[in-house]
Specification:
With about 220 residues, the protein is of the alpha/beta class. It has seven helices and ten strands. Helix content is about 35%, strand content about 25%. The structure holds 5-O-phosphono-beta-D-ribofuranosylamine. The site of 5-O-phosphono-beta-D-ribofuranosylamine (GRF) has 14 residues, from helix 1, strand 5 and helix 6.
């Protein structure tokens, strides 16, 4: 089976990018990262890409007079790389409906909450403030509305007494690194289909693991 050519868009640290790089390095993994693009030139994720020998570039949104011009540059770079699919991994610019519709069904994102709860920024603060006892993360298809879109996989973690944002973020992030490569694998294997707003994943293994709920003593 040919591998799916993927562009990863980042804005910062790039730990989720790293989890995708590591997954793609496995010989049997059905996807390859052909470019990493950051809207921030100082994003550490660019170093991770270079260390892995992946073409990487900054496309600084501040250098463009409009969102449309920025997105045109992004689109050109993605197309030039040969990418057929986009993974957003901590990419902090809201993409226009035009851009999103061009990549409809071919762009996914990871968000550190159990969507549709706690969209947007300061997710872990929102989670703690709400007093919920279960937190987690979601990989979903991107639609024009922020942090919406059909959900492919989620992982759940407990919120523990005494958690602050950093502690919760760390627990959730460990799960992000598990589910993002898994979602990309399913997509690349052609096992993911969209049925309206819902995602179906073919295969018994997927049925059992679209919710990842690690067994943690609370
Ligand atoms: C992650 O928590 C991701 O879910 C959110 O932004 C953060 C990015 O972290 N969208 P990293 O750059 O992947 O380390």
């Amino acid at each position: 089976m040919p591998t799916l050519k993927v562009a990863v868009l980042i804005s910062g640290r790039g730990s989720n990018l790293q989890s995708l790089i590591d997954a793609c390095a496995q010989p049997s993994f059905p996807a390859e990262i052909v470019t990493v693009l950051s809207n921030r030139p100082d994003a550490y994720g660019l170093e991770r890409a270079k260390a892995a020998g992946i073409p990487a570039a900054a496309i600084n949104h501040k250098n463009y007079e409009s969102k449309a011009a920025f997105e045109a540059a992004l689109q050109d770079a993605i197309v030039a790389s040969g990418a057929e699919f986009i993974c957003l991994a901590g990419f902090m610019r809201l993409l226009s409906a035009d851009f999103v519709s061009r990549w409809s069904g071919r762009m996914i994102n990871i968000h550190p909450s159990l969507l549709p709860a706690f969209k947007g920024l300061h997710t872990h603060r929102q989670t703690l403030d709400a007093g919920v006892k279960i937190a987690g993360c979601s990989v979903h298809f991107v639609v024009p509305e922020m942090d919406a879109g059909p959900i492919i996989i989620q992982a759940a973690v407990p919120v523990l007494q005494g958690d602050d944002e950093a502690a919760l973020a760390e627990r959730v992030l460990a799960e992000e690194h598990q589910i993002y490569p898994r979602a990309l694998r399913w997509v690349a294997e052609g096992r993911v289909t969209l049925s309206g707003d819902r995602v179906e994943v073919k295969g018994a293994e997927a049925q059992q693991t679209s919710l990842r709920m690690p067994d943690r003593a609370v």
